Amino acid sequence: MSVILIAEDDRRVRESLDRALRLEGYEIVTANDGIKALQIHSETPADLLILDVSMPNADGLTVCRKIRRSGDKTPILMLTARHEVPDRVAGLDSGADDYLVKPFALEELLARIRARLRPSEVDDSETLVVADLSLEQLGRRASRGNRHLDLSRTEFDLLEVLMRNAGVVLSREVLYDRVWDGELEYDSKTLDVYVGYLRKKTEQGGGSRLVHTVRGVGYVVRSDDS
Questions:
Q1: Phi/psi of residue 5, each to 5°?
Q2: Beta strands at 76-80 and 211-214: parallel, antiparallel or unpaired
Q3: Cis-peptide into 103, omega within 30 deg
Q4: CATH topology of domain 127-221
Q5: Which string of b and e fits 88-118 if b means at least 16 CB within 10 Å?
Q6: What predicted TM-score, i.e. pTM, was given to this entire model?
Q7: Rounded to whole angstroms, how far apart are CA atoms 178 and 222?
Q8: Cα 12 to the center of its chain, rounded Å
Q9: How far apart are the C-alpha atoms of 115 and 214, rounded to whole Å?
Q10: What is the pLDDT of residues 202-221, one digit of tens each?
């Protein structure tokens, strides 16, 4: 059973998340400030941390930085009411793996938690499949149905990240960090261009759309019936 540490100073939010995640089968530990969260995690390390950005004593960004400076790679998901791009960038720059803006849908939070708790080891022989779209990591080959897709290196890398997190909406910031290693500005149009390339190649011949836009958030790979 995975252990999740929730650090949130709003009692109602904290208790609501506690109940919802316990119902999903997770073991939950809670803290109402950053110092307490650091203490709990140091004594009994969690498998995933959910940190509110605005907390007393030590805010979520400070907690995240301290954890990362210690060499701890535990997945961290930041929660915040701040939705501006600089705020999201600050969260990711502090070492967080993901960033969710309040109010959020519980289903999206659960999907992001599932994605972060998947084994970190990547099996290069694994074949990722969504509907009739498949991607072979070992041979770096992709196909849709019986049709081979001729993808560039960047197109393949982008599709791999999206398919590995199928059903999970990935923010633009996360995609820029994972595909371009943070070398491009988050407001660059490069991501949109490559999404366009992927759509053209995956939808050629009348194929249904699998790479979807979630306005104001980012992109997700999912089939129409998922």
A1: -100, 120
A2: unpaired
A3: yes
A4: Arc Repressor Mutant, subunit A (1.10.10)
A5: bebbbebbbbbbbbeeeeeebbebbbebbee
A6: 0.55
A7: 19
A8: 25
A9: 18
A10: 999 888 999 999 888 889 99
Q: What's the token pair of residue 155? A: 């197109």
Domain-by-domain residue ranges, the chain?
Answer: 3-116, 127-221
Q: Which has more pLDDT, 38 or 121?
A: 38
Find out whether 158 and 181 touch, Cβ atoms under 8 Å. no
Q: Give the N- to C-terminal CA distance of the chain in Å, as an integer.
A: 26
Q: How far is it, in rounded angstroms, from Cα 119 to Cα 47?
A: 11
List, as one string, the DSSP characters of the chain: --EEEEE-S-HHHHHHHHHHHHHTT-EEEEESSHHHHHHHHHHS--SEEEEESS-SSS-HHHHHHHHHHTT----EEEEES--SHHHHHHHHHTT-SEEEESS--HHHHHHHHHHHTS-SS--TT-EEEETTEEEETTTTEEEETTEEE---HHHHHHHHHHHHTTTSPEEHHHHHHHHHTT-S-TT-SHHHHHHHHHHHHHSTTTPPP-EEEETTTEEEE--TT-
For the record, the structure tokens of 77 come out as: 């998901």
CA atoms within 13 A on the CB side of 134: 13
How far are the Cα atoms of 1, 56, 92, 107, 113 from residue 47, in angstroms, in the given order? 9, 23, 19, 20, 10
d(CA 72, CA 87) in angstroms, rounded, equals 23
Query: Which amino acid is it at 81?
Result: A
3-116: which CATH number, 3.90.190.20, 3.40.50.2300, 3.40.50.300, 3.50.30.80?
Answer: 3.40.50.2300
**If you average pLDDT over residues 124-143, what whole number do you get?**
85
